[in-house]
Fold this sequence. Notes:
Layout: H1 12-28, H2 34-63, H3 67-73, H4 77-109, E1 112-114, H5 122-136, E2 142-146, E3 160-165, E4 170-175, E5 183-189, E6 192-197, H6 198-206, E7 219-225, H7 239-246, E8 255-261, H8 266-276, E9 283-286, H9 325-331, E10 334-338, H10 344-355, E11 359-366, H11 374-384, E12 388-393, H12 401-413, E13 417-419, E14 426-427, E15 430-438, E16 441-449, E17 461-468, H13 471-484, E18 497-499, H14 503-519, E19 525-530, H15 536-547, E20 551-556, E21 573-578, E22 583-584, E23 587-591, E24 598-602, H16 608-612, E25 614-620, H17 624-639, E26 644-646, E27 654-655, H18 665-673
Keywords: ATP-binding, Kinase, Magnesium, Metal-binding, Nucleotide-binding, Phosphoprotein, Transferase
Function: Catalyzes the reversible transfer of the terminal phosphate of ATP to form a long-chain polyphosphate (polyP).
Organism: Marinirhabdus gelatinilytica
Amino acid sequence: MGKLYNSKYYHRDLSWLRFNHRVLQEAADKKNPLYERIKFLAIFSSNLDEFFKVRVSDIRQIKKIEKPLRKKLITKPNKVLREIKKQVEIQQEEFGAIFKTEIIPELKKHNIHLIGHKEFSTNQKEIAKTYYQETLKQKTEVNTYNTSEENQVFVENEALYLTTQLSDTQFAVINIPEDEPRFFTFPKHNGKHYITFIDDILKYNLRQNPKMERDITFYSIKKSRDAELYIENELSGNLAEKIKNSLSKRETGQATRLLIDKRMPKDFQEILKSALDVYNADIVNGGTYHNFKDFFGFPNPTETKLSNEKLTPLPHPVLAGCDSILREIEKKDQLLHYPYQSFESLIKLLEEAAKDPEVTTIKMTIYRAAAESRLNDAIVTAAKNGKKVVVFIEVKARFDERNNLKWGKIFEDNGATVIYSFPDIKIHSKILYIEKKTEDGKKRFGYIATGNFNEKTAKLYTDFGLMTADKKICKDLNKVFLVLQQKILVPKTKRLLVSPYTTRSGFTELVQTEMQLARAGQPANITLKMNSLEDKAMIKLLYRASNAGVTIRLLVRGICSLVPGVKGQSENIHITSILDRFLEHGRVYIFGNNGDPKIFIGSADWMKRNLSHRIEVVTPILDEDHKKTLLDLIELQLQDNVKARIIDEQQKNTYVSNDSDKLQAQLATYDYFK
């Protein structure tokens, strides 16, 4: 493994690759049920696709900038790209080995045989012919090209193709239909189940074509393109309309990767490089099959349970059976814990607010909307019922632009005021504000969360959501919305930390307080849980705190640019990363405060973009019961010795191991709430 860091900072993109290696470790972990291991292969593949479409394309764009400015953005982009390619190919080798030498044999033990076209029986060949003739043939195009001509072969972004060299002067490119399931299940035979890729059904049938030799070899290819939209001027005109019009650019953007079958001969690679307009740096070696994200839908034709037992979301102990969620919030703050507790409480809050005749105003931000959503339906109902509904929709949420635009139009059509993306800044906060008229005037309610207003991800991501009627928090929350509505310029908040205004300075002050305690000989400690830690100013601050004697414990799921355990720099900093069945997504910030902990939750990672270039909201947790719960849950994560990895100087991803009883934090958390 190449050196991924200097003495102070890991490179963020190389650190992300170490995160994806942790996903690969889960695929290799034989303690996981077989279909969970297959799912982790799919996650690894899906993650890598997005990495090439987004991060690699960003580094390529930086290469075009003149050197003095480029150095401020990234040091030696070519060197970084070479290291990325090297690390990806090492991981692809490991990926292929796990699949071939572990997953395939394990499937066979359960009488599930994933077969190629050369293994088809006589009966399976006939079935493959019928399926091809009746279904695949009309959806498949076989395009042939002359190697001697200047060819510009267009292939769709992220689509799958087979290619083959027909002769010294001709080659063919064949699409694999995207609207058909990737896997085909043959009838059971002698107690055994047989599954094949549709790639193999195509290969078998194409070989029957008189123009193709029977022993011809097909190779899989997939081209990834730059996913940036490159809006020319965000400051003028209708930004939402510009984004809508730019979405098609993704289909024709610059190549960031050509994934090939590593068995492809070098001379044929040269032909394809020219035809597909790619360079050596773009070519990444893969296996016989690409798009392993399709394994999310890998069929289990047996009656054997080969996945984890489901952890059904639990009803919230207070909100699940109550008559009025608004009344319960008035009595006491309520904290929700997804996916261990049901998202239903939040849906019911919005449904209640939509129908309550005393509720006058509902304001919320949407970053990633679910495709179909009861929560969004409640917003529509509220607007129809004459409430003042203001929805801020972040149309720049990458890969969710089209769906967010769709919901924006639905809300507008039903009477809501919809505000779309702001120029040069993303609205990443997950906030809701409700106003209700009372005999004395009005009552405010707020909801501040670490995760999106999305029913689907609430079952997959671990997140926290605070429902509160605290006057100061709710007043602060309304100020944030007034900024979004462009009625005030700066939200002067008393309790909330709001990026890009006060989050950085607020956290800095909290860290400095711990440093002062340490220097005075008092107990001083900081515990932070987040997705990514990349902001150099905050990392420097943590180094200073470590040198002052503050004990620092970090839980970082993904990118971690801080280098821990270095004498004179970070010897008091210990970092672990948990990767398990749920995606760790919640952000929790705990400052010891001499025995009276200050605890916050919110949407902001400690990345430069979250602290300086996005609207983020972080709330204190004021209720003592909820403080205790969060401390208990974080302690479970700190004690995890089953799914936790140590983030050390070299990011080797060594599992936490000790002689104590095994503790798997996510299962322990479910039991805690149960």
